[in-house]
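A common beginner's mistake is to predict each chain separately and then try to dock the pieces by hand. The better habit, illustrated here, is to supply every component at once so that their relative placement is modeled jointly.
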Amino acid sequence: MAPPFLKTREEYQRLVDSVDTFLLDCDGVIYHGPKVVEGVKTVLDMFRAAGKKVIFVTNNGTKSRRKLCDTLNKLDLGATIEECFGSAYASAVYLAEVMNFPKDKKVYVVGEEGLEEELDEFGILHCGGSDPEDRNFKPPIIWDDFKPDPTVGAVVCAFDSWINYKKMAKAMSYLRDDPNVVLIQTNTDPTFPTHGTVYPGSGSLSIGIVNASKREPLVIGKPNKHMMDAVLAHHKFDPSRALMVGDNLLTDIEFGLNSNIRTLLVMGGVTKHEQIYGENPSKTVPDLVIESFGNFAVLADKA
Ligand SMILES: O=C(O)[C@H](O)[C@H](O)COP(=O)(O)O
Ligand SMILES: [Mg+2]
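With all components supplied together, the output reads:
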């Protein structure tokens, strides 16, 4: 059955009254690229003033918790680092605390500074990433130039605006040459919303490495439990009074479903109206739908 589309002030109020903890996706819910979604500041201020817990949960692997917090605060959203979680952080937690990644091994990073920062926080050695040697690639490919680092024990792929053939070839060869080298993807989002449309996301960038290596990657970000484990290590909340708000059915809404948390889908991000209300709707169904998270701002208007 198609989920209810919330439209009235009364419907918004009833939902808000039933929630103590809001888990908020970022790209597509809080901001679109550099722009904050209209009404979101008012909504967050109102929720916090009412004593509600707000937790930001992004799959964006370019942002460390610190960077995510800075991004939110540049938009005047008053975030604290304790409220901020990302797939880069959850990946570092997984490597350090679940895998006990050896201190003398390195991660080959297909990603940016935010991921490197989180690895540094956990004392995990890394190479690749922002190293100019890997970023400044121009054809032709000089195959003999690549001297593999024998200490690489994992390849971690995140969103990487500098993705190039050299990085892909290096990542693939670490995986090809040593079955003990593990492949981790921070997240697999095919697209993300920005500048009024959608563009290739992290999953679309790392799929070539997955294909070439023929490895089954371990995926950390939403909808996987590793992301929720990272949040739950910092925050206790009653799942029956929590709400996962997101724009992506396969990451955010599945994440809520996997965690037994109600879900609210916002439009205007990566999901199209027909995926919910069309003739062949998605099998992933949110509990509720709203045009925008900013719509709750009408509740701040006492008139
Ligand atoms: O490509 C990516 O990494 C993701 O699409 C993107 O950044 C998702 O962020 P989220 O919507 O989870 O905040
Ligand atoms: Mg999103």
